[in-house]
Amino acid sequence: MNNQNKNNLTDQILVEKVLRSDTNAFKVIIKNTEGLVTQIVSKMIPGGEDRKDIAQDIYLKAFQKLGSFKFKSKLSTWIGQIAYNTCINHLSKKKLLLIENHNDEDKSDDETLVIMNEKNNPFNSETEKIIFNKELSEILKREIDKLSPVYRTLITLYHNEELNYSEIAEITGLPEGTVKSYLFRARKTLRNNLLFTYKKEAL
Amino acid sequence: MIDKHLNDDEIQQYVLQKAAPDVDIVKHIESCRICKIKAAQYSMLFEGIQQQEKPVFDFDLADFVIKQLPQSQRKVSNDKLFFYFIILISAFSLSIFFYFFGNSLFNLFKGIAPILIATIITAVICLFIFLCFDMHRKYQTQMKTLNFY
Lengths: 203, 149
Description:
The complex is a heterodimer of chains A (203) and B (149). Chain A has 203 residues and is an all-alpha fold. Helices cover 78% and strands 0% of the residues of chain A.
């Protein structure tokens, strides 16, 4: 039995238990999907207090709609979809921009950026490498936060949650091609901004 | 072999290694200093993203949600009860009506030409289907507005 079938079977058993009013089964569902939901909510919603209400709202919606879940996808993907839509609605109500135009082209010529950062090559020694990795991690965190909510979420779903393009497309409701293109742009923006910031801080 | 520099998309794909890399792309990266550095930067970027700390809520989400559930469940069961109550009342009213006025209703249609009856029934069925369809459409719009999914 492959993993997909195993997941479906577990999902089916849990859903049936919840529909028979077993709240413990719903607790298991929350525990299983909490990581994905936390990632989506944290990346999409900037404020702390709003996140708590939204996370609660997501699971109450999932609980109310569980009877209509058709097992066409994984339960986690379905809950991820509810999480993403809830966050999008929240951002739309607050009139926040979902995707911004990142003019990374203006910052510096691509080739110059590569050469300049090569001169600041951090891999000269192991100690420098460790310091650089720590620095990089902090700069990267700041740069990821500067991305638009949708780009941030796509990057996280792909690189941290290790979901494939079709699963991300299912969660976000975007066509697979759009997911690929947004991801490509987000990575490019992130790389350019990262090098630009690192170059500025190294000077 | 590819002469000009690879674009970012090709380099990203090469670093991600989701599909078997094109031999020409591999050869180019091995021989081109700029593309090689770019690939190393992307590789470092992806590693950096994966090493980012996972966000966690500062409260127990499962407990927090479970506390809210009984109320919602009761609401659902009350809604169902109300629905069954309406059906019961409708069925009771209809049976009372047919019990007392069934014969009169049958006599009402006795003198009318069959074609007229067929026309009336067809019109009523069409109207009923249209109303059901319209009601369903409005229900879906309202559910969307209520932000249920």
